[in-house]
Amino acid sequence: FNNERSERQYFVEDKRSNRKFELEFKGTPPGHLRSGMEVRIRGKAKGRKIFLAADGADSSIDVNSSPTPAVSGDQATVVMVADFNDATVTCSDGEIRDKVFTDPLGQSIDDLYRETSLNQVSIVGDVLGRYNIDVASTDACDVNAWADATDAAAQASGVDLSVYSRKVYVLPENNSCGWSGLGSLGGNPSYAWILRCDLDAVYAHEIGHNLGMNHASTARSEYGDSTDFMGTAMSGLRQINSAHQEQMGWRAPSAFAEVTASGTYDIAPLELESTLALAPQALKILQPDTGDYYSLSFRQPIGFDANLSSALTETLHVHAYNGNGGRTTFLKAVLQGESFVDTDNSITLTHISHNSDYLTVQVQLDGSTSSPTCTASAPSIALSPAAQSGNPGITLEYSVSVTNQDSSACMPTSFSLGHVV
From the CB of residue 23, how many other CB atoms can be counted at a distance below 10 Å? Predict the structure, then answer.
């Protein structure tokens, strides 16, 4: 996360010998591979590596079966803490337990997943260890060997690891790997390695990979989308973006409305339960040139999204995604009165107005750039305090403010104030 770089590695486990081999592709690896798939491979083996041809007509991998991603219910998770011969995990086991499962202030990874999934996913389980494994901080970065050694130590102490579908390894930050976290993309059991025990969002991020989510990116940065914990781990805990919400299926289908005609549409805050939303919580728009989609959403500082920058909670979020589990890309936070323009597909998205209940966006699919229309709304009035009492003759002071809620395309409005006795 510090260097905003990532790397994807592929391993295969031989069913007969249970040995793991790393796959090296000549060219671009196939995009459809997911953890847990049963495959047949044709390539050249050298030591613990297998060298394969590039993806294409002569693909060297045949997929025999696909896993069913586990994206709902209790995720039985074991967090195993292991120290090296010359380095230790700096967080206490209790601190790690609070981060993942039991934070007294409701800020654990379990709390985060329950909130962002509308209580459809929970992270439940145990913190075990700490174990000592025969590894030095200067040894080569071999996370599979470290996991095997940690598993062996846990089993030797009487732990039955087969009851857990999610394995998380917390290891010393002093090591040769040069990264903060690593996670398998899906799989049962899934695997996550945490080398920065102090960063809460690293746990959320790697477990997100385990559940099947890819990175939340920008055009310039693999981890650049700070609206989603599948982006950088340096922005604290927050919920996931609308494209990931659609992928995971944690909201009702009615929360995602596909737009196929120009018009003015409302978007309710993404954090709300669908039954409380006054409008769809995301709009989908097809990009004809690529077959990808735009996902439009509106975020408010509700729950964990109170950690979002204020610059992201009053804007129209525009993401791009391909719908097949690939990376999501944050394109722009559109301020009120501004537009996002896709000249290649003649699409213009204009943020008309917003309040706490919904954001209004004008969608133009014909390439026109007409001025936004004026949307008149009743002003909001704030009175403080709401009520007072006192003896006759006493002067009481109130603070009254009136806010114009018309859209930015409207002319200025004058309001007359009066009172009723």
Answer: 19
Collapsed DSSP state (helix, strand, coil) of residue 93: helix
CA 335 – CA 316 distance, rounded (Å):
7
DSSP 309-330: -GGGSSSEEEEEE-SSS--EEE
Q: Which secondary-structure segment (H or E) carries 355?
A: none
In 44-71, which positions are buried (b, 16+ CB within 10 angstroms) versus exposed (e)?
A: eeeeeebebeebeeeebbeeeeeeebbb
The pTM of the full predicted model, rounded to 2 decimals, is 0.76
Residue 147 per-residue DSSP state: H
Model confidence pLDDT, tens digit, residues 72-116: 899 999 999 999 999 999 999 999 999 999 999 999 999 999 999
Contacts of 149 (CB under 8 A, 6+ apart): 82, 133, 134, 135
30 secondary structure, DSSP code: P
Q: What average pLDDT is seen over the chain?
A: 89
**Positions in the chain whose pLDDT score sits under 70:** 2, 4, 31-32, 54-61, 63-70, 367-373, 408-409, 421
CA angle 190, 195, 198 (to 5 degrees): 110
Listed in sequence order, the DSSP H helices in 47-195 are: 93-97, 109-116, 143-156
